[in-house]
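ok trying again, last paste got cut off:
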Amino acid sequence: YNFIIDVSSISDFADQDIDTSNMVNEKPIYYIIGQSDLVLGSSFSGFGYLALISCTNITAMNADVGGVLLVNTTISTISNVSSHNSGYGIHLSDSSNNDIINCNSYNNEDGGIYFYIFIIGSIVDIDCITSS
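nice, full thing came through this time. structure:
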């Protein structure tokens, strides 16, 4: 894997201190905790990995990354994102009311899209191509 977080509980994700000096495929990791109402568009297209932890109303779009992680994140959109060469391409845990739109997920060892602690309404809309 290019990046993995090994934790014993969902709350442990928020205890991590991972800044953009950490890299995946020579691009920075964006590990965002507790933010709301952000649009990660063209200015963030250079991220190597995206983690949204306890976030609300985040839109991430138009990126080629080594993985996407949503934990305890709601009402957010991942759009036009290619995620590859990771454990899971797009990993959602304890998250609800999110849209995954027009995404590609490939060459991921454990799966293209993975749900852990699935919540009813976890995905509002899903439109992805996966190949692992």
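cool. The first strand starts at residue 23 and ends at 24. The chain has no helices and eleven strands.
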